Amino acid sequence: MAGFAGAYDSICGRAVNAAIIRIFGGGFQVTLAPDLLDKLSRIVGANKLLMDAEAHVQYGRDWTRVETPSPAAVALPGSIEQVQALVQLANAEGLAIVPSGGRTGLSGGAVAARGELVVALDNLNQIGAFNSIDRSVVCGAGVITEQLQQFAEDQGLHYPVDFASSGSSQIGGNVATNAGGIKVIRYGMTRDWVVGLKVVTGTGELLELNAGLIKNNAGYDLRHLMIGSEGTLGIIVEVTIRLCRAPTDLAVMVLGVPDMPSIMSTLAEFRQQMELTAFEFFSEPALQKVVAHQDLQRPFDEPCAYYALLEFEQTSGSEMDQAMALFEHCLEQGWVLDGVVSQSVAQARNLWRLREDISETIARWAPYKNDLSVVVSKVPEFLTAVEALVNAAYPDFEIIWYGHIGDGNVHLNILKPESLSIADFAEQCGEVSKGVFEIVREHRGSVSAEHGVGVLKKPYLPYSRSPLEIELMRAIKRSFDPNGVLNPGKIFDL
Ligand code: 2HG
Ligand code: ZN
Question: Which PROSITE patterns match (predicted)?
Answer without folding.
Answer: FAD_PCMH
